Amino acid sequence: MTAPLLRQLRVGSVELKNNLALAPMAGITNAAFRVLCAEGGAGLVVTEMVSAESLKYGNKRSFQMLELLPGEHPAAVQLFSADPACMALAAVEAERAGADIIDINAGCPVRKIMRSGAGSALMKKPQLLADIVSRVVKSVKVPVTVKFRVGLEPGENLAPLLVRVCQEAGASAVTLHGRPASQFHSGPVDYDAMAAAAAAAKVPVFGNGGVENADQARAVLATGCAGVGVGRAAVFNPAVFSEIASGLTGGGAEPASPAFRIGLFLRFLELNAGIYGEEHGLARARKLVGYWLKGLPNASSARAAFMGLKTLKEARELLIQYTR
Ligand SMILES: Cc1cc2nc3c(=O)[nH]c(=O)nc-3n(C[C@H](O)[C@H](O)[C@H](O)COP(=O)(O)O)c2cc1C
């Protein structure tokens, strides 16, 4: 019997209500956004990547990135560094802050991160990656997962090897972004590499890359991956998880209306204000407002007006035109 496409999934000791996960995104997947995604149907949410080195030196902002809100669990905290001891210490801090899962970043293509030996540079050092995974696994009680890519360059498929390395070192699941590091977040997704990784895996593999709807999620699950990671499609529509879930179970997936989406954005601003304070919360939302308003009438003037807002009341007054 084949497993249903949408299903509960166990990552180590953590039971996920479904196999649709929010992919970690720096500058985007903060606590406020993760709550919206959890409410929007994600079975697992993941923080922005947090520097283990910064935690080691007591960086306040990095510690703030570990803070989770009650409505977002189960939540994974993603950490990065090339130093196993430092990662182990950071994992202890993340667990103390309430992380349900520790995720290790082995896929970031940003040059500064790679030069430090972290992110996707770890894909070329499987022994070091294994060391990091096993040190982190030994330092915490919560499950540990790893996110990596198919390779560094097009045509390279390191995924089956990395799946084995990670699961032997004690990882409870992996996420595979089906594009090479050199392509960052664009270009085709390598479904064959996903299938090879899934075949090599004893632990669940979340296939990630380019999933915006149920058909694309189905294509990932058809490779044998147990779950799907969704990144950018959630950025201005955290309800995309429910839409995909509905599509996978044969229901018609009604796309979220603009009024509904702007209602979510207002809720995002309220949650952000609770975390950072009203003015700072609104300032942090400035780089995202363009996504949320995309395609709406008078979007560019509303976006420009948003840049000067200082209070939630002003934000509500500006955005109310879109919620009716
Ligand atoms: C703005 C942005 C920030 C990202 N930050 C991270 C990160 O912190 N950690 C990580 O593992 N991947 C990060 N990614 C990669 C995503 O998790 C995901 O693998 C990628 O966007 C492909 O999925 P998608 O096509 O569904 O967006 C980021 C991607 C974007 C677009």
Jot down its keywords.
324 residues; alpha/beta; TIM Barrel; 8-stranded parallel β-sheet; two-stranded antiparallel ribbon; 43% helix; globular; binds flavin mononucleotide
Walkthrough of the structure:
It is a single chain. The chain has 14 helices and ten strands. It has 324 residues and is of the alpha/beta class. It folds into two domains: 9-248, TIM Barrel; 258-322, Non-ribosomal Peptide Synthetase Peptidyl Carrier Protein, Chain A (Orthogonal Bundle). The strands form two sheets. The protein has an eight-stranded parallel beta sheet. Helix 1 runs antiparallel to helix 11 and helix 12 (278-293) runs antiparallel to helix 13. The radius of gyration is 19 Å and the shape is globular. The model has no long low-confidence stretch (mean pLDDT 96). It binds flavin mononucleotide. Flavin mononucleotide (FMN) is lined by residues 23-28, 48-49, 78, 105, 107-108, 147, 177, 185, 208-211, 230-233.
What structural class do helix, strand and pairing data support? alpha/beta
Could you tell me the number of beta strands?
Answer: 10
Annotated CATH homologous superfamily of the largest domain: Aldolase class I
Could you please say which CATH topology of the largest domain applies here?
TIM Barrel
**Assembly form of the protein:** single chain
- N-to-C terminal Cα separation, in Å? 47 Å
Morphology call: globular
Flag low-confidence runs.
none
List all distinct small molecules, including ions and cofactors, that are bound in this structure. flavin mononucleotide
C-alpha-based Rg, rounded: 19 Å
Average pLDDT figure: 96
Structural domains: how many: 2
Task: Please identify, by name, the CATH architecture of the largest domain.
Answer: Alpha-Beta Barrel
**Helix proportion:** 40-55%
CATH class of the largest domain: Alpha Beta
Biggest sheet: strands side by side, in what order?
Answer: 3-10-9-8-7-6-5-4
> Sheet with the most strands?
8 strands, parallel
Give the SSE order as H and E letters: EEEHEHHEHEHHEHEHEHEHHHHH
Strand content: 5-15%
